[in-house]
Design brief:
The protein is built from eleven helices and twelve strands. The chain has about 475 residues and is α+β, with helices and mostly antiparallel strands.
């Protein structure tokens, strides 16, 4: 089944297929065009109404003045100079008593003006006056005003003024307004294009830089100019690049270190397996003690390899804490870790002082971190050596009676795969304390290493929380 796009969807896509500069130019031009059109129409309508109002007032005033003259019907010669002014006014007297129309103005002849019902109604006294627009047979427009003649029953004075001059003025005004409006729109379009080009130049520069990074994969920071929104965008992008570059470097270092650390147990495991396979294929009978020794070695190497892979998986997690976050009793976490370590190191003596502390986090991650601290202390403690574990106000302190950590190694003990010279002959991958540091960071805590009063190493893990159990609300 094939889906079709309607005209609205096509128009929407067409709009967004255009460049941002062209869209800004179009919007600017459209806004100016609408504004110019509104101003032009408003000015034209206002001017026309004002001209019409002024002309009508003058025409009515003139008609009333002429109507006040004595014997209007016999005053043709006297009215010409007073009433006709520029020669655009036509004058007539309507007499309904005799049923005649007395043309006073000679220019009225041939104009095609006709006396209608409004003028007759004024002469009959049925209306106080009339004002209308009349179109002649040849298309000329007149403004016609009719007023009654005082003291002359049945008579009305009619004045008709041509609108040709007004229409000429309005036509010129319209032409000038149109020309100026078009010119204004063109200027607005050019200004919009210039502003869009100038304003979007930093965006184009930023775009080219991002495209270069995507093409070459070189995470070099972008140049930041100014202090506007585009500069803030470039700064944020540089921060993202720095984070991505740091993540890439950590990934490369993790892969390189993991490859190095995995090579040793894999090589040893392969050697032992080949030895067993060769002895079996050559019908060489190994003593049971030798076979047991090789199998124990293989078992230890597989366990070491499994531990190393688990540590690598744990360290490879860069995401934030997931949905397993919950309120925890840190005392329970430490007790579970102690139970596991006591089974693995039965020769160590653990002395505990655990006081209530409740925090929020991932149970598995925190238990693994505490277990690593206890394993580290048990590994370095002598036979029947003491390991003191205290939890006071969210501070977990683990002290052992081992040789301690040299001052030169203290800044590096939480780095991945870091192993002091003294520890290279002992089992381990150098990842345990790195996992502790990562767990502390993920839970907004801290971990530090130092010297213990017992003579060995001291590890201090501090986690935020409270000393009483949080109140749970809801069902």
């Amino acid at each position: 089944m094939t889906a079709t796009l309607g005209p609205d969807a096509l128009g929407h896509r067409w709009h967004y297929r255009r460049s941002l500069a062209s869209r800004i130019t179009l919007l600017t031009t459209f806004a100016v065009a609408v504004s110019v059109a509104a101003v032009a129409v408003g000015a034209f309508v206002t001017t026309r109404a004002q001209l019409r109002s002024t002309s009508d007032e003058a025409l009515v005033t003139r008609a009333q003045a002429v109507a006040q003259l004595d014997q209007v019907g016999d005053a043709a010669q006297g009215l010409s100079a007073f009433a006709l002014a520029a020669g655009e006014i036509r004058v007539a007297v309507v007499d309904v008593t005799s049923g005649t129309v007395n043309v006073i103005s000679p220019q009225t002849t041939g104009t095609g003006l006709t006396i209608g019902e409004p003028e007759i109604a004024v002469a009959q006294g049925l209306s106080e006056g009339s004002l209308r627009t009349l179109v002649t047979d040849d298309g000329e427009r007149f403004r016609v005003v009719t007023v009654p003649v005082p003291d002359q029953a049945g008579q009305a004075l009619v004045l008709a003024q041509s609108l040709t001059s007004q229409e000429s003025v309005l036509a010129k005004l319209g032409a000038v307004t149109l020309v100026l409006g078009v010119a204004g729109v063109l200027v607005a379009a050019l200004a919009g294009w210039a502003v869009a080009g100038s304003g979007l130049r930093p965006v184009r520069t930023l775009t080219r830089g991002v495209e270069e990074i995507a093409r070459t994969e070189r995470l070099e920071p972008l140049a930041v100019e100014g202090d506007d929104e585009v500069a803030r965008l470039a700064t944020s992008f540089n921060l993202m690049l720095a984070s991505l570059s740091s993540s890439r470097e950590r990934q490369k270092r993790l892969v390189a270190d993991a490859g190095h650390e995995l090579r040793t147990p894999l090589t040893s495991l392969r050697t032992n397996i080949e030895l067993l396979a060769q002895a079996r294929s050559d019908d060489i009978v190994l003593p049971p003690e030798a076979v047991a020794e090789v199998l124990d070695d293989v078992r230890a190497q597989v366990e070491e390899l499994s531990t190393l892979v688990g540590d690598l998986v744990e360290l490879a997690r860069d995401e934030e804490m997931g949905h397993t976050v919950e309120d925890l009793d840190l005392v329970e976490v430490v007790e579970h870790a102690l139970a596991r370590v006591r089974r693995r190191a039965p020769g160590a003596v653990f002395e505990t002082d655990l006081r209530p502390w409740f925090t929020r986090g991932e149970p598995g991650t925190l238990e693994r971190a505490v277990t690593n601290l206890l394993d580290n202390a048990a590994k370095w403690s002598p036979t029947d050596g003491r390991v003191q574990v205290s939890l006071v106000e969210g501070v977990l302190t683990v002290d052992d009676e081992g040789p301690g950590i040299p001052d030169a190694d203290l800044p590096h003990v939480f780095e991945r795969f870091y192993r002091a010279d003294e520890s290279r002959t002992m089992p381990g991958s150098g990842l345990g304390l790195s996992i502790v540091a990562q767990a502390a960071e993920r839970h907004s805590g801290t971990v530090v290493a130092g010297r213990s009063p017992l003579g060995g190493a001291r590890m201090v893990l501090q986690l935020p929380g409270q000393d009483d159990e949080p109140v749970r609300t809801g069902g």
